[in-house]
Amino acid sequence: MLTTSTIAMLARALREQLPNFQCFSCFGKYLGISEPEVRGAAQALVFRQRFRAEQRVCCVCQRVDDTLVPHEGSGYAAVDVATGSEMHSD
Ligand SMILES: [Zn+2]
Questions:
Q1: What is the CA radius of gyration of the chain?
Q2: pTM of the predicted protein model
Q3: How far, in Å, is the centroid of ligand 1 from the Cα of 17?
Q4: Measured in angstroms, how far is the CA atom of residue 71 from the centroid of ligand 1?
């Protein structure tokens, strides 16, 4: 069963392993969940545009398979305090 905690767990694990990549099968073993659960969580992350699906070499089993890579810029486009451009919110 796909839950938001599964999705969050996958997102965190994907970022932690960078610049390496694991296929969904190996991620399932790594996270202790089934491969369909990994794929379901991965689809949710792609839908939310946090990650995009790509084929990469798995760092565990060495096969070329589907995995997720973070969207560049997503999650990093918050207010830049150094510029001071968004200081006034009233
Ligand atoms: Zn693998």
A1: 16
A2: 0.75
A3: 13
A4: 21
